[in-house]
Amino acid sequence: MWTLRVFAAALALMAAIMVVAGVFSLPPQDRPFAKLNLEDPIGAFTASRIAALRRDADACLALAALSKLEVAPIPDLRERGFCRLENAVTLTRSAHPYSRPTRLSCALAAALYVWEREVVAEAARTHLRATVARIETLGSYSCRRVYGGAEGRVSFHATGEAIDVSGFRLADGRLVSIRRDWGSKSAEGQFLRAVRDGGCRVFRAVLSPEYNAAHADHFHLDVGDYTICR
Q: Dihedral through CA 121, CA 124, CA 127, CA 129, nearest 10?
């Protein structure tokens, strides 16, 4: 009986060692306890680690400083009793420029940087044989409730944790428009679907024209409380 117990314990120890060895053989972005690096490829824990930066602005700024992402902290702002822009930044340099100045949370800036580099740029090369020169946006911070209603849930735009992207200007001058090209079987349509699907690996929520008519002309990307990809 004692021999069997020793043998079983040895097997359990060997199994545990193999599991640990297997985990440490994974790339950092796929290890459950590794630190986030904004220059790493997207992995199994990328989205959850970026979302955790919502609660740690100092860590987010430190990660940005170790990457090619450049952000500048801005003063806190409160409006209308329910809007707050706290520990936020302006996006001064990312993988791509944006069509308008962007005030947003540091966590959202980090997510955008990873998405641009790992998803948008690759999708443009694959489907369009082109590079993206600028991302067209309808804005990030906006003091409003969901769908701009007078009542109801506060939008993640009201905390700078969401951005609406309407299209992509290519280096050759072409504009890929979500309103015009979404759902098309063209190269532009395939590019947009790849960009939407890849975004679901980085952001907490990605809403496209498939979600409802209110999103017919843009992708809503956020690092808020709810997980949805549609």
A: -110
User: Where are the domains positioned within the chain?
Assistant: 1-34, 36-229
CB-based burial label for 40 (10 Å; 0-12, 13-18, 19+):
middle
Strand boundaries in 8-150, DSSP class E: 70-73, 77-79, 83-85, 88-93, 103-105, 132-139
For domain 36-229, which architecture applies? 2-Layer Sandwich (3.30)
Measured CA to CA in angstroms, residue 104 lies from 13, 24, 71 at distances of 48, 35, 10
Instruction: Return the axis-axis angle of helices 57-65 and 106-115, rounded to nearest 10°.
Output: 40
pLDDT digits (tens, 9 = 90+) for 83-128: 999 999 999 999 999 999 999 999 999 999 999 999 999 999 999 9
Query: Both tokens of residue 22?
Result: 């297997």
pTM of the model: 0.88
Which three-class secondary structure state does DSSP give residue 136?
strand
Instruction: Give the up-direction half-sphere exposure of residue 62: CA atoms within 13 A in the CB hemisphere.
Output: 7
Burial class (CB in 10 A: 0-12, 13-18, 19+), 78: exposed
Q: What pLDDT score does 2 carry?
A: 58
Helix (H) or strand (E) holding 193: helix 187-199
Residue 139 CB coordination number (10 Å): 18
Distance CA 230, CA 225 (A): 16
CA-CA distance, 230 to 220, in Å (whole number)?
10
Question: CA-CA distance, 221 to 162, in Å (whole number)?
Answer: 5
